[in-house]
Task: structure prediction
Amino acid sequence: MKQVLEFLGFIALVQGAMGLVHEFTDWHVGLVQRLGFLDGYEIYASVALVVLAFALFALAESRQSG
Result:
């Protein structure tokens, strides 16, 4: 379970960071800008993904490895 949480945290962190890179540099990377229902809220969604990633990492760290 710990590895699953770490993997999901890593994916959320990468997608959040790539969404922020897209917003500030206009590079076409990441998944956030491709989701139509997030139009106008891409920065908020990207920041939320980064925060979610840190929460998942903290949850994974609090779990027993086993």
About this structure: The chain is about 70% helix and 0% strand. The mean pLDDT is 90. The two ends are 8 Å apart (CA to CA). The longest helix spans residues 2-25.
